[in-house]
Amino acid sequence: MKHLAMAVVVKEDKVLIQKYYRADRGTTFEFPGGKVHLDETGTDAAVRELAEKTGVVGLEHIATYTKVNELGGRIYFVILRPGRDSDSKPVDLSLSSDLNWLSPDEIPQSELFSADREFINQYLSQYTLIPA
Known about the structure:
Elements: E1 4-11, E2 14-22, E3 26-30, E4 33-35, H1 42-54, E5 60-68, E6 74-81, E7 99-102, H2 114-122
Parallel strand pairs: 1-6
Antiparallel strand pairs: 1-2, 1-4, 2-3, 2-7, 5-6
């Protein structure tokens, strides 16, 4: 049983999506993330994985959603965004050609895992509205 955590980084009406190659599936799109270690929460794992993959730290935690994943463990979707008063480092897309800011409509859902599709369709629109 593997527990996974995904960092859902939201900036106005866009979300950070990673293009990733998997030997068993080919090119897929997913939120930056990875395994949850035994000594950490799903939220902590998403923050750690995001920092490891992008160097981004200091984002504001907005919410965490969880459900059973396709591997029989838990999957955590952790909503993060730059805080109004924080010193968060902006996501520098020059770090990787595999990171893209996409609106929910631009995300190629056919190339996502089913749990990611469900999360996008049920919850993501609450967090991608342009602030008033």
